[in-house]
Amino acid sequence: MDSVDEDVEEKVEKMLNGEGLEVLDFDSTRDHVQAVTLRKNVCYIVSAVIFNTEGKVLMVQEAKRECYGRWYLPAGRMEAGESIHEALRREVKEEAGFECEPITMLLVQERGRKWIRFAFLAEVTGGSLKTPSEADSESVQAQWWDREAPLPLRSWDIACLIDAGLRYRQKPWFPVCHPVNLPCSVVCQRLLLVFSCKERMWLLLAKHTANPETHTRLPVAVSQEGHSVTWAGSRLVQECMRAMSHVLHVNTHGILGVQHDGRVLGQSDGICFNTLVTLEHSEEGAELSSPPLLDSERYTWREVTNQSLKGKILRRIKDRSLLPMHVL
Questions:
Q1: EC number(s) per UniProt (predicted)?
Q2: How far apart are the C-alpha atoms of 95 and 75, rounded to whole Å?
């Protein structure tokens, strides 16, 4: 078990800073890797939490037949060729009448790779509030809601998004996070997978097939249909630590960064979630004195000897300073 090489340290620093890393290969996948296509086998939703100077939240009245007249946050599906930011700006303009700029992602929610919602805290930069005279198929109107006056909501699932926006305005608990413009063909999870014991820390790394002796990378696990996005990390642990996987707990603490560039339909509609994950013994009171034994030669443990880097990772875990990801 060698110390982490400089190349890996640099990549870990980039992940901790919310930067992206090109997805060049996949390390864990059960089925044949096939590119995902927006609106065909993946659906991405954007929603905006926007407050005015009085602390009221922007709401839109639905025009869809199934929820006509009810209220919701500005939200909608991404369209082919859009970036996540572009989709957010378009939806807010179409539904509420305002131009806006994202401040940060607030929350990612997922029901597997087929449905992923990106909630943003955003601010108005122009335009005007949509009135009933401007009603169309996108919405009936928009208004500012004080969260106290009765308002028939389309669904209460937006309550946690509004609460997250209020919390972040009062005291941000993770760094500003925006999608990084890097292409990916599938929905996947790049893992900064950490094992710690007695003030020592190791990272799980995957070996490059071309030169496994000298080149390693942070592992990338492909999301499988019918499972949550983050389950891919648990599957990777099962694959490379089969003998001990039944007593190990994979704890996904949150997202360090999101990578997406959907300009080439059917070829770059995927998303890579860079996540911070810890590996722990699942039995109460039990503790490992060294990293779990690896059954696969494709992976290796590398000890983090850079104290500054170790400290940054530990602080992010302790402070829960990560973009939340919720499985619905």
A1: 3.6.1.58
A2: 8
Give CA–CA dist 154/268, Å, rounded.
32
Q: Is the separation of the CB atoms in 15 and 256 below 8 Å?
A: yes
Q: What is the pTM of this model?
A: 0.94
| Helix, strand, or coil (residue 83) | coil
What is the CATH code for 44-170? 3.90.79.10
* Domain limits, the chain: 6-36+185-327, 44-170
pLDDT surpasses 50 at 1: no
For the chain, how many residues are written?
Answer: 328
Q: Match domain 6-36+185-327 to its CATH number in 3.90.79.10, 3.40.50.300, 1.10.3720.10, 1.10.10.10.
A: 3.90.79.10
Q: How far apart (Å, rounded) are the C-alpha atoms in residues 323 and 173?
A: 9
pLDDT in tens, 232-241: 999 999 999 9
- Indicate if 44-170 has the same CATH topology as 6-36+185-327: yes
Crossing angle of helices 307-318 and 6-16, in 10° steps, is 30
Question: How does pLDDT run across 229-264, given as a tens digit for each residue?
Answer: 999 999 999 999 998 888 899 999 999 999 999 888
235 φ, ψ to 5°?
-65, -40
pLDDT of residue 305: 93
Whether the per-residue pLDDT at 30 is higher than 70: the answer is: no
DSSP per position, 121-168: EEEEEEE----GGG--SS-SEEEEE-SSS---BS-GGGHHHHHHHHHH
